[in-house]
Automatic annotation (TrEMBL):
Transmembrane segments: 36-56, 98-123, 561-584
Protein name listed in UniProt: Uncharacterized protein
Keyword Membrane applies: yes
Alphabetically ordered keywords of this record: Membrane, Transmembrane, Transmembrane helix
Length: 694
């Protein structure tokens, strides 16, 4: 009994640890794993049931020693763990409640297997692993500093591309020491990439990047760091008739080029962006030859090709008042359509901010999920202005060039003779120019200010839904400041979409340009990688830490449900064993069972012979009775105890001559009808009782 209980508990614990070892693991060999779990569940059920069955048997003998029951009730009692109908015997349940509960436990024990089988499930779950991924790239604009467009570097037969185009003062047949190159405009390849990103409204993804980096069937993410420009924005004013502050820069202070009176409700614009103040002039000299070489003889003007200042983004925009902005689809806002409406002056809130182009330290997380790219700039640390000057409008340069931009201090101009600094600044300027060109302009109502519907747009910003809310009459989004910064971030990250750009490098080796291939395995015409050979140690040096993930079927272990079932089952089994132990103690420590020999030994009472146990006239089996005990006999009450031998071949003192040849007889225990046996309710042990007649 005790060993069976321990075996059942051990199987339950093993079941837990087995399922626990499978938790969150890929769901492989599902049928095999489930079968092992079912075997342990059957073992737990078998052990606990066996312990209770042994306890039940001890309780049965204790019960029949203490009370008389009908033959039918005794039939039900002795067969309660084998015949399900026996458990429903009303008299048996009333006369042997504890034994009936133990039998009920045995019949309900299979529920352990049923209920615990549902504790290990197969569910879809995101599986993550830390890996080293190939093909991860980042940006390093120091390669713009050293780029020589006359002898461009080549990787795998493809030329590296700078972000900028150049003019020169050098004569084709002469090599004078005072010649230099100067900036012209953003490279057309970069303009195409930035424009595509603008229309996609996200960073341009490198072709086949998810497959190359994550591998087939996987998504992945990784974090890169690099230095690039970023726009640092400052709020200057908000509200009708509010004071608009000047923008304070490291090099000085500058007033906005417009005031908020141009915005609704006083003005006619809902969006007003001025981004060209101090813009680098593509016409540096009025008279130039091929390649932008000035026709004049050296020395050239000191500020020819100089980056004098980086244009500031000045942006005024209008949002709806709080009561209108909080309206929803079921309660649409009632926006006044013309200035004649009394609510016109209180329905619109003008705002203004300015953004400076700063060299910044980026931390970016790039995610490839299901062949789609998403980017998240997690941190931007502003380092220094791209050009540390303050634009001074309405002041003529008069410096011999066609660029009439002036700024202070002039000592901070970036001159083309400072080649590394100048070329990096040119790359930053090209990046900023593409953003400024996209957002410059206005959106507003007509000059007559009669109707707010169908606004008039004079800006490329209308081409995308990044900044203007198409569903709200083209009003700017309230978070337009952050949206502009995100727009710029996507332009910069779009450079990664074409590894042919000179500033694209390996993330694992930022000092090495990447080109468009990985490990010298070129893309075929279908855009798929040829099957590469195993990576060499040199190739492994280009692997970069990443997190790979995918949705996969994994095992999920519900330990709580498992132990709810097992704790109830074990607790009831322990209670049953305690009952069995107490019954065993009352039985004198002798383990009783219901074997055939035990039943025969308990049915030696001579009084049982006076009853006809079958329906046959000669003790045979009749066709009606089918060998069963007649119903009238089943109603007789019987019990187990000391057989009364008075007048039945005994000595009148409980001793019965059983033919042992000793002549003295001995005390006999057995079943008998009520009145034929004496039941001893509080006997120390049956072993002691058997010695009474000796």
């Amino acid at each position: 009994m005790y060993l069976c209980l321990l075996f059942g508990v051990a199987c339950a614990a093993s079941h837990h640890f087995y399922y626990w070892s499978l938790d969150r693991r890929p769901a492989t060999n599902q049928i095999k794993m489930m079968r092992y779990g079912t075997i342990l569940a059957f073992g737990a059920k078998a052990g606990l049931s066996a312990a209770v069955i042994v306890a039940f048997r001890q309780r049965v003998w204790t019960t029949v020693r203490k009370r008389f029951m009908t033959v039918g009730a005794l039939d039900a009692l002795f067969s309660a763990t084998e015949d399900s109908q026996a458990v429903t015997s009303r008299e048996m349940v009333q006369s042997a409640k504890v034994a009936a509960l133990l039998a009920a436990y045995v019949w309900l024990a299979p529920l352990v297997v049923v209920l615990t089988s549902n504790t290990l499930l197969v569910v879809p779950r995101r599986v993550e692993i830390r890996e080293m991924c190939p093909g991860v790239r980042t940006l390093n604009f120091t390669f713009e500093e050293t780029y020589e467009w006359r002898k461009p570097p080549k990787i795998d037969r493809l030329f590296e591309i700078p972000l900028s185009l150049w003019n020169t003062t050098k004569e084709s047949e002469k090599d004078t020491p005072e010649w230099f190159d100067y900036y012209t405009a953003p490279n057309p390849s970069f303009q195409n990439t930035a424009t595509i990103g603008s229309f996609l409204e996200e960073a341009v993804m490198r072709k086949n990047a998810p497959i190359e980096t994550c591998g087939s069937g996987w998504s992945c993410s990784f974090e890169i760091q690099f230095i690039a420009p970023a726009y640092k924005c400052t709020e200057l004013g908000s509200g009708v008739d509010s004071k608009v502050n000047n923008l304070t820069q490291q090099s000085g202070s500058i007033a906005p080029p417009f005031n908020m009176d141009v915005l609704l409700p006083k003005g006619k614009f809902t969006y007003y962006a001025f981004t060209s103040g101090g813009e680098y002039s593509t016409t540096q000299m009025k008279e130039v030859g091929i390649g932008g070489r000035p026709t004049m003889n050296p020395p050239f003007p000191k500020h020819l090709g100089a980056f004098r200042t980086e244009p500031i983004i000045w942006l005024g925009y209008v949002t709806l008042a709080d009561a209108l902005s909080k309206a929803n689809d079921t309660n649409p806002p009632s926006v006044p359509s013309s200035p004649s409406d009394p609510a016109w002056s209180t329905s619109f809130v003008p705002h203004m901010f300015a953004c400076e182009n700063y060299e910044s330290n980026y931390t970016v997380r790039i995610n490839y999920t299901d062949a789609a790219q998403s980017t998240n700039v997690t941190k931007v640390t502003y380092l220094r202005p791209v050009i540390n000057t303050t634009y001074t409008p309405h002041i003529d340069a008069n410096d011999g060039t066609a660029d009439n931009v002036t700024a202070v201090p002039t000592a901070n101009y970036i001159l083309p003779t400072s080649v590394p600094q100048y070329r990096r600044t040119a790359a930053y300027h090209s990046l900023g120019f593409m953003l400024r060109d996209q957002i410059n302009g206005t959106v507003g109502i007509g000059d007559d200010r009669d109707d707010l519907v169908n606004p008039i747009a004079n800006t490329k910003a209308i081409q995308t839904s990044r900044l203007l809310d198409y569903g709200n009459n083209y009003f700017p989004f309230p978070d337009i400041q952050r949206r502009i910064q995100k727009f710029y971030e996507d332009i910069i990250l779009s450079v990664l979409g074409n590894p042919q750009f000179a500033s694209v490098v390996w993330a694992a080796k930022p000092g090495e340009q990447s080109g468009v291939t990985f490990n010298n395995v070129p893309l075929d015409q279908e855009g798929q990688n040829n099957r590469p050979p195993p990576l060499t140690d040199e190739q492994r040096a280009y692997l970069y830490p990443c997190t790979k993930f995918r949705m996969a079927l994994v095992y999920k272990f519900n330990a709580r449900l498992l132990w709810i079932v097992y704790s109830i089952s074990i607790a009831l089994a322990v209670m049953g064993v305690v009952v069995g132990a107490l019954a065993l103690r009352e039985n004198g420590g002798v383990v009783r069972d219901t074997k055939f020999s035990s039943i025969v030994a308990a049915t030696r009472g001579s009084g049982l012979g006076r009853v006809r146990w079958t329906d046959g006239a000669d003790g045979g089996v009749s066709s009606v009775g089918n060998g069963t005990v007649p119903e009238e006999v089943k109603g007789w009450r019987m019990g187990y105890g000391v057989v009364d031998t008075s007048g039945s071949g005994g000595y009148g003192d409980g001793r019965l001559d059983v033919g042992d040849g000793m002549g003295g007889g001995r005390t006999v225990f057995g079943f008998g009808f009520e009145g034929d046996v004496r039941q001893l309710r509080r006997t120390p042990s049956l072993v002691q009782l058997t010695t009474l007649g000796k």
